[in-house]
DNA sequence: CTCCTTCATTGGCGTGACCAACATTGGTTG
DNA sequence: CAACCAATGTTGGTCACGCCAATGAAGGAG
């Protein structure tokens, strides 16, 4: 009676969007339980991987709009995971630095996310997971550049 | 300089969510150009596939919250794609019916969506598309029941 | 020196997915 | 039959995310 129309289930765009609903819920529930948001993880990850940077640069690395970076960095700074200092060499720029607590926070969030991946991919074998990841990566890369 | 951290690109949840951003944009841009929204298509599809139903039932079929169904049906009714009449057999229930214009609208939207699938899957071969669709379907089905 | 760009920040928008409350009505059960 | 529970339509929010416009300050290029 409440079956999903074939028109929908046959379309990759539907599958991706709908699966993303579940994925987002898993991720944000898991993060919320730790008092965090997705934006926090993205920015911490960008910071850890390429080192201190301006807010604009962090936003570019983590695919976060610079206006949203402001609020997220505010929150991270208030929790002591990040330090915001004026860039001495560059007038208007802020220099964002990862604190030791921030690095630990990132590791904790990584553990949380690893668990989420497992819940998300549920019934898939290791081989299928790899195949899915590879295909998604190729499609995403195609849209990231164009 | 603005490279995406491996921590992100390696995670299926990131790939799915990020790809969903692109997918949603393609879909909603295409629909917007025709004066429609995603909810409209879902409800029309549910109507066409299983016949006239109450708003609550349509929402269940198309995975739309019942409070959001109200607004979408308002819009569809105002455009003449759907008719809302009180269910004679059932006091509080509304009976939603697809009009001939609604059926035509659905077909037009289908054409739009087919084009979107092509843009979305971009560089993938037919075989890869089939593999991706199958894997996504399995994962989604797993989350739809639990 | 002027122009164009970059940066941080504020404030806003739209979408999609929800949730709570309410009045009403149908169905179920004691 | 009466009392209760479930479902329905509706209003009016909330939240995360992605994005856009404008602004003031500052750097770099010509």
From TrEMBL, chains A, B:
PROSITE patterns in alphabetical order: HTH_MARR_2 (PS50995)
- The chain positions of domain HTH marR-type read 1-141
Sorted alphabetically, which Pfam families does this protein's record hold?
Answer: MarR_2
Going by the entry's taxonomy, the superkingdom of the source organism is recorded as Bacteria
PANTHER family tied to this protein: HTH-TYPE TRANSCRIPTIONAL REPRESSOR YETL, TRANSCRIPTIONAL REGULATOR, MARR FAMILY
Q: What is this protein called?
A: MarR family transcriptional regulator
Q: In which organism is this protein found?
A: Streptodolium elevatio
What high-level taxonomic lineage is stated for the organism? Bacteria, Bacillati, Actinomycetota, Actinomycetes, Kitasatosporales
């Amino acid at each position: 009676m409440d079956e999903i129309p074939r028109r929908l289930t046959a379309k990759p765009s539907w599958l991706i969007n709908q699966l993303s609903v579940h994925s987002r819920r898993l991720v944000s529930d898991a993060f919320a339980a730790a008092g965090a948001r997705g934006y926090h993880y993205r920015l911490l990850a960008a910071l850890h991987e390429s080192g201190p940077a301006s807010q604009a640069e962090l936003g570019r690395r983590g695919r976060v709009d610079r206006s949203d970076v402001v609020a997220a960095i505010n929150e991270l700074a208030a929790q002591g995971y990040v330090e915001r200092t004026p860039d001495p060499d560059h007038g208007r720029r802020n220099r964002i630095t990862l604190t030791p607590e921030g690095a630990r926070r990132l590791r904790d969030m990584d553990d949380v996310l690893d668990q989420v991946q497992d819940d998300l991919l549920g019934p898939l074998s290791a081989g299928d997971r790899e195949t899915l990841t590879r295909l998604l990566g190729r499609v995403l890369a195609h849209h990231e550049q164009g």
